[in-house]
């Protein structure tokens, strides 16, 4: 696969310089070179699944679950051969939460450089969709013992009735999360292959508990910091209710980007037997 990718890169380079040799080549040579490059580029544009992941019959829930679990458990470091980015740690965009004074969580919270851990421990419980035609809605339900977000943070405001202020390292852990992924997609035909284009990607998450630790609250005042962290964890349900939508959006955006890259590289008809 690596050799094929290198060949593709070389051909793209050759194709880009064709214009510079037009005046020095015969018309026949020029046409042959352009046609050859175009043919190889079309072949290169459609990647295939790695050997340890076999295509499933479209709509075969059991096979699809097994393949997703193989990717999560064995490919979490990424696999360029089919466009899979690194999943552990799972990189996300900064999460910015601003709630007004009427909210129980009247804070401005910035989580910078967030990284997610626990993806390799995810298992797929159920899938729906992924039939012969990629058009429509597809669903995946996954679960893990825990998912942890580590980041730099800055917070200022009030949580319920207590003031909170600080800047440092944050650890937010979701205990026994169950995540429902909803994908709305359309199909696209290109060079004899069918591709799935993701139009909307949403998630919802139920958790048994959320555990939070914000270091260096109140400029490192340990007594105040410990009390606030205890208060946050005692009232985690109210706090999760306020935080979950921005969390969902950030996670969904990153997962969407990863999924789009895979479906962009590999035709739907290579992933599923249709």
From TrEMBL:
The organism's place on the tree of life at top rank: Eukaryota
One GO cellular component term: extracellular space
Listed transmembrane segments: none
InterPro entries (alphabetical): Haemolymph_juvenile_hormone-bd (IPR010562), To_sf (IPR038606)
GO BP of this protein: circadian rhythm
Gene3D superfamilies from the UniProt entry: Haemolymph juvenile hormone binding protein
Entry keyword set: Biological rhythms, Signal
N-terminal signal peptide: none
Keyword set includes Zinc-finger: no
Coiled-coil region list: none
One Pfam family named in its UniProt record: JHBP
Similarity comment text for this entry: Belongs to the TO family.
PANTHER family linked: PROTEIN TAKEOUT, PROTEIN TAKEOUT-LIKE PROTEIN
Name of the featured protein: Protein takeout
């Amino acid at each position: 696969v690596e050799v094929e990718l290198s060949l593709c890169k070389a051909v793209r380079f050759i194709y880009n310089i064709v214009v510079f040799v037009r005046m020095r080549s015969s018309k026949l040579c020029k046409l042959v070179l352009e046609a050859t490059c175009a043919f190889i580029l079309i072949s290169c544009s459609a990647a295939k699944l790695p050997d340890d992941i076999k295509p499933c019959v479209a709509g075969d829930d059991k096979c699809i679950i097994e393949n997703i679990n193989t990717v999560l458990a064995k490919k979490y470091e990424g696999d360029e051969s089919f466009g899979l980015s690194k999943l552990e740690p799972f990189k996300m965009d900064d999460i910015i939460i601003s709630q007004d004074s009427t909210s129980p969580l009247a804070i401005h919270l910035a989580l910078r450089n967030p990284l997610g851990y626990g993806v390799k421990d995810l298992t797929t419980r159920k899938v729906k969709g992924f039939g012969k035609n990629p058009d429509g809605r597809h669903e995946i339900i996954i679960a893990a013992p825990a998912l942890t977000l580590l980041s730099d943070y800055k917070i200022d405001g009030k949580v319920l009735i207590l003031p909170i202020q600080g800047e440092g390292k944050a650890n937010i852990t979701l205990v026994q999360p169950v995540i429902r992924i909803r994908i709305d997609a359309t199909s696209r035909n290109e060079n004899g292959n069918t591709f799935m284009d993701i139009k909307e990607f949403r998630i919802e998450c139920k958790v048994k508990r959320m555990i939070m630790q914000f270091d260096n609250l109140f400029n490192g005042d340990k007594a105040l910091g410990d009390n606030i962290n205890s208060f946050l964890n005692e009232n985690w349900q109210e706090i999760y209710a306020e935080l979950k939508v921005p969390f969902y959006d950030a996670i969904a955006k990153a997962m969407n980007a990863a999924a789009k890259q895979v479906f962009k590289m590999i035709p739907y008809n290579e992933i599923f037997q249709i």
